[in-house]
Amino acid sequence: MLKDKRNKDEVIEAHAASGKVSRKEFEKELAKLQVELTRLQAWVKDKGARIIVVFEGRDTAGKGGVISRITARTSPRVYRHVALPVPSGREKTQVFIQRYVAHFPAAGEIVLFDRSWYNRAGVERVMGFVTDEDYERFLTMVPAVEREMIVNNGIILRKYFLDVSQDEQRRRFEARIKDPMRHWKLSPMDTESVRRWWDYTAAYQRMIKATDTPSAPWYIVPADNKRRARLNLIRHLLDSIPYKKVDVDLPKIPKAQQRPKNVTDGLGAGQPIPNHY
User: Where is this region: Disordered (predicted)?
Assistant: First the structure.
């Protein structure tokens, strides 16, 4: 578990009043949390634990950003980022959770769902991609499915909803339009969420009310301030799992063999790339 929590709390709370966390403080605290994420990783592998983390939220809320910070210093063999594309014609006829089950963790894995089966209660509901009957069935069934198929099956489940204000969402979309490196994040479906803000608000309110259960509660992450949201979410995730530090047997670096007489330095073939930098 995290140590010296008092100092970490003081750093975050010192900036909370102003609503700001400097880049320097953010990087400093993030580095500490990333060390803990690797310790969680070692514990998961050692115990054969299985963890699912669901990231839901409004468009531009920062789901991908916090996932990238979690996976930046961890093993992709343990932390798996799952972001499924639009369902195929066949997948649209499946049970709502069916295509996600294939990505559930095996022993020693943590799966990070960048959006999940809750698409049915969010974008599918607002954009009319699901019938009223299927929507109501989803809200009725999903608590039981999460309890019986996930939690009671020994999988640790955490559900996070990242929320941003209406003005902040618009500002972030405008920033994406101005930044060529973020154009890939734009789609008509995403920007439609600006116009249909209140439709999404109503959908998310009902979704959370219907699926916030003792066995699988929703954790709400205010995300107008990205740095604070990322630190707070990662910290909560770590605090919510009773992991312990596992001693890792580190390999020793052996002495290199002597070079044979018939072998020269370099590879001797192939074309080196131009040295531009």
Answer: 253-277
